[in-house]
Amino acid sequence: MSLLRTVATLRAAALGRAERLTTVRHQQLADPPFVFIPLALAGEACAPLAAMAGTDAGHPVLLTVEQPRDRTRRFRFAEQLADLLLPYVDECRGDSETYEAGRPKESRERFTRAPQILVPNQGGIAFTRLLGRSTRLRRTDGPYAVAPSVPTLGKWLTWAADQADFPGSSTLLSMTRMLGDHWATGQSSTEDAHLAALLAWIDPPPGMTGAQAARLAEDPARHPPAGPATDPLFDRTLSELVTAYGTAAGDRARAATGRAIEAELRTQLAPTWDLMWRGIELLRALPPGGHVEERWALDRALFTGYASHLDESGLPQPRRDHAAGAARRLARLEDAVARYESQRAFDDPLVMAEYELSGEAFTGTVTAREPDRVIESGGGGGRGGKAGLFRPLVTLRTEQRPPIGEGETVLSPDRPGQKAEILTIRDLGGSDSSDSDGGAGNGFEADIQLSGGFGGKRKPPAPPGSIPEIGEQLCYTTLGQYVASAQLPDDADTPWTHGGPPQPYEPTHEDAEETWE
Amino acid sequence: MLPQQPEDRLARLRGPASPEPYTARKITALTANPACARRAVLDAAGVDKALLATRIGFEPRFGQSPFALTRGQAFETLVAWGGYAELVSLLRTELAVPVTEAAVADLTEVAGNSAPAVRARETQRLLERIAAGDEDRLILGHPMLTLDVAGRTAFLEPDALTHRIGGRFYAVEIRSFPAIDGQADPARTAEAVKQAAVHVIALRQAFHRAGLPPEAVADEFLLICPKDFSNRPYGRLLDLRQELDAVEFQLGRLRRAADLTETLPADASFDLAEDSAGSPVRDAGELDASVGALEAAYSPSCLSFCEMSRYCRQEAETAGEPARLGSGVRNDLPGIGSTRTALGLIDGTVEPEPEQAEIAELLRTAARLRDLRGGGAA
Amino acid sequence: MAESLEELEARMTALRGAVRGALRARDKAALARSRSELRAAEAAWHTVLGVAPDTHPAAPDPAQAVPIREQAVPVREQVHRALALLGAPASPKLISSVHEAFFHGPLVVPQLAALRRDEERAALAQGSAGAVAQARRYHICAALTHDRLAPARGLLALSTWPLERRVLGPLGPRTDFLTHAGRLAEHAERLRVSGCAPSESGGRLLRRFALNIPGAHEDEHEEPEPGRIIAAVRTEAAMHGAADDRQRTETAARARAQLSSAQQLFGVATLGVVRRGTEA
To answer: Where do the segments described as Disordered lie (chain A) (predicted)?
Structure first.
């Protein structure tokens, strides 16, 4: 945890109200998202018990499994979920747009929308992954056949769960993580995993502090757990009803017991449904960060790619990742984490403050500028009629000594397309060590040389606004200069040490008939 | 006056209720938070912590689902079905046990008697005979082992033992959480590993009592859980060495649990009995004061397993303990014992001690940056 | 005014919540109150629905209810035919599964567990131990442990079997398991020859046996093959045969020498159990 977050946590605890960790929203919110709140049967690997799902806050759809141990009913649950999710996914495949990408550049198509699944917590993501695993390898013919929509659902859920490992992806997100990324509460991260308590800190009801509201929200009688685990005491009620359902005398009694089970499960899900939409509302109120749209475009491109994979071969994801696939995935993941972190900092001064604190960024005010500065090209000093290089200079005044050394290349979030180099740093005096607690003395000055970002101009004058003005506040950082990850061989060139080129995964009999008990 | 026997003191603290059994789970919970004297004493005294917490107004928020319970029992029944047929198969296919090996012993009861002490004697007797070569068993079902914990005998029941893998004894733990594509839930596996370690320690003590070499008990154990989404058992040997050291160390500390009661006032009591009219003999205030007199070491992870945790959380909050906000906050505030001090250092109302100067400066910088860059209340 | 079904159901949901609240707070008085209100509401609900509350609470599944004609067969008779098919002492659960797979529907397991004690009481009531075997054609009795000659936990056996088949040495559970497997496979084979398709539960049961005997199954997902199971059972049984037989002969001889004929059926520790049972 960073010290900034610690300060925010301390203040939130003292005030009894959550503190902002960001000034903008760093995740995309699709319009509409697909909200999915699964409940699982305790003690089972992945036995769905119920779910509340849908894209309209006013119209939650409740799915229930009256006999959670019955395999056929589980598949019916999967079918019902598929009936909700697959049309939503299909709707996203309406309009598409053309964009350029790749090396060499080529024209590609991507959909203008992409599905987004929101679950309450990390457990919801794990459940989504398991539900995907238990349905994607099923056969739609022969013995143990399931409805065609079931394996399709499984493939999409697995795909979404795989995306969820990438921090910049907005395909499958948990509400607790999203809220926790944007706000610090006055409680621990363990307690923040409880959606109702977390939201209570951020958005307490009138007349109550967040701290008080969070304590009340922990009471399972007021706020049932947000799943997939259920309240063990509730399970007692449910277990009695499930037994009664199995032994009910006649259809009328069974139907009535089924209704009671549904009513009970609704009491456990409805409060979380409301919390999910309240969370969405709070997040929507934050302005989106500058890179959110760019990352969402990637999500849309990946969605487009997977949709066409399903149209073409449609083979499901294998049980286990192939060695080369796993290595490539890991490299992509590391890359994505670094990129996401730096984009967040560029989009958000409050996130950048972390890097200012850790010495990877600093902020100062422009006190002087040489907008028409041209320097000699090449190091040799030869002039021979060669045109000089257009390299404007700005001088930044800072309170503390800039933590980044002379000669380093830096970027500014305010002008991301403009490279800069720190030429010199001067101590303006009055800040000798004997005066340590007396403030920063007269401060420091840094001369920063700019290159590029002048609207294509190679000589002065630069277009107005392309060079920082006097009095402007600027942040410079070493972040944002990603090094592309080492190129890994293509699938077809996978060395034998890593299993050789992967074979496309065809589900076996065993996969298709795998019991789901 | 003679010094009081520590066990007497623990029993007196508990009152007339019969002690809660000391399970492997309780022992491993102590190793999760070894510094907590509160839990150590309450468990050593055999106090019903859930009831105690409820009496003082902090009823525990967890319990066991009947579904989980049924599932656990059903899976164990399945593994034991047909003379442990599933387990026998697993040992043969995964651990190369020859087909000629099939002898089993069921130690669930001894001629109709299922008293723990009787079963423990029978288990010890059989272990000695097997070790002496007088008997052979591929599987010992539901053996009963004993372990001395804080002056009390804990009866521990591993699901099974086997002594036919390379001639050594292995504890067998049957769990109903699945291994999906060979991967089981890490947290639950870790808990099973800890409990197996407790069982192995007890088994080694049984060997020691019988004058047998404790090395004959393997420092691995066999974990059995359902494969994927099915009911088919899946088994794997897991290493125990690290946990054995950890649990042994904790047990060493635990033996001094009785000493921890010395700090308690003479009138302290955790007596949860009720009088004939059904009202508690000790009111909530008395119980609260007694619990408060025991030192706790609260951290948010306690919330997931300890019945007393919500009480301790409240206490930690009142005291402004940084640890209640998580280990991140605690580690960020070295040498600062209270969140109030930390806040005071930030806004300058508290003068830092010399050793706090550096962290105070850092905190102030961080706070100033937050203010400058747009941080604030939600 | 009478509540509507919806109102009633809403109240029942609220009351179930109140029961949980009382359980959580360990409030006995509130718990008793909420429970009795819930029971009253449930009764009213049943009335509104026009159904009797839980008519047969323990019936395993209404779809598989035992046909009327079958109910005429006493439980001990049903247990007898399952055990006769299995050929070795078995647990109530297995007996029930076998009855479901090869006869008519599952049996109620707790009822079977009580059966042995009932049989024992009946046997003792008939007085003279010598008359035990004659009085009834057979008894559902116990299997005996080899060391203490006590009734083995949770196993039922037939009194018509020789003692050797009813005693249980260390290898006993395994050899009995193999006996069960072999006998069920033979039965399945007979059914096949006579043109009867095996029931689904029969196939499932046989497969569970087959999966746990080396060489008895080829593929986890193929239908079990009775012939293959029988051969595999013979192979493994031959490995345990000598040691197991020796143990059985020795134990049976000891039992004949030391036990009364009633004890030979129900084991030695059993008198105390009966006494406790009747006092209660």
So the answer is: 399-418, 426-472, 486-517
Is pLDDT at B96 greater than 80 in this prediction?
A: yes
Residues A301 and A427 in one domain: no
Query: What single-letter DSSP state applies at residue C156?
Result: B
A515: pLDDT strictly greater than 70: no
Regarding whether A298 and A370 lie in a shared domain, the answer is no
Residue of B337, B334, B324, B338 lying closest to B362 (CA atoms):
B334
- Interface residue A367 vs chain C (CB under 8 A): no
State the pLDDT confidence band at C66, using cuts at 50, 70 and 90: very low
Nearest to B139 by CA among A212, C254, A12, C173: C173
The DSSP symbol for A312 reads H
Number of residues written out for chain B:
378
- Number of domains making up chain A: 2
Contact between chains at B88 and C171 (C-beta distance less than 8 A): no
Where b means 16+ CB within 10 Å and e means fewer, C181-210 reads bbbbbbbbbebeeeeeebeebbeebbbbbb
Same domain? For A30 and A124 the reply is yes
Q: Flag if A45 and B62 touch (Cβ within 8 Å).
A: no
By residue range, what is the domain housing residue A275?
Answer: 3-313
The reply to whether B344 touches chain A by the CB within 8 Å rule is no
Nearest residue to B195 (alpha-carbon basis) of B160, B224, B156: B156
Helix (H) and strand (E) counts in chain A: 14, 17
pLDDT at position A247 is 85
What's the CA angle centered on A159, arms A157 and A162, to 5 degrees?
110
pLDDT in tens, C69-128: 455 678 888 899 999 999 999 999 999 999 988 887 777 777 887 888 888 887 777 655
Neighbours of A290 (CB within 10 A): 16
* Residue A46 located in a structural domain: yes
Do the beta carbons of residue B32 and residue B253 sit within 8 Å? Answer: no
Closest to B85 (Cβ–Cβ): which among C177, C239, C272? C177
Query: Does a structural domain hold residue A64?
Result: yes
Cα-based angle A468, A473, A474 (whole degrees, multiple of 5): 70
Measure the CA dihedral B172/B176/B179/B185, to 10°: -100
A164 with A263, same domain? yes
Instruction: Search chain A and give the residue with CA nearest C62.
Output: A247
Test B54 with C171 for CB contact under 8 angstroms: no
Query: Bigger pLDDT: B4 or A241?
Result: A241
User: Cα separations (Å) of B227 from A511, B79, B183, C136?
Assistant: 13, 12, 9, 47
CB atoms within 10 A of CB C80: 20
Subunits close to B (at least 3 CB pairs below 8 A): A, C
d(CA B24, CA B147): 10
How many C-beta atoms surround the C-beta of residue A329 within 10 A? 16
Pairing assessment for the beta strands A106-111 and A96-101 based on DSSP bridges: antiparallel
Q: How confident is the model at residue B254 (pLDDT cuts 50, 70, 90)?
A: low
A contacts of B344 (beta carbons < 8 Å)? none
> Which residues does chain B have within 8 Å of residue C273's beta carbon, measured at their own beta carbons?
112
- Report DSSP state, residue A293: H
Cis peptide before A461 (omega within 30 of 0): yes
pTM of the model: 0.89
Chain C positions touching B81 (Cβ under 8 A) are: 93-94, 208
ipTM of the complex: 0.90
Q: In angstroms, what CA-CA distances link A131 with A82, B14, B176, C279? A: 12, 47, 18, 54
Residue extents of the structural domains in chain C: 5-42, 73-279
Put simply, the chain C residues between 194 and 223 with a CB less than 8 A from any chain B CB are 208-209, 211-212, 214
Q: How far apart are CA B311 and CA B54, in angstroms?
A: 10
Mean per-residue pLDDT over chain B, rounded: 89
User: Domains of chain B, with CATH numbers?
Assistant: 6-59+264-299 (no CATH), 66-253 (3.90.320), 323-372 (no CATH)
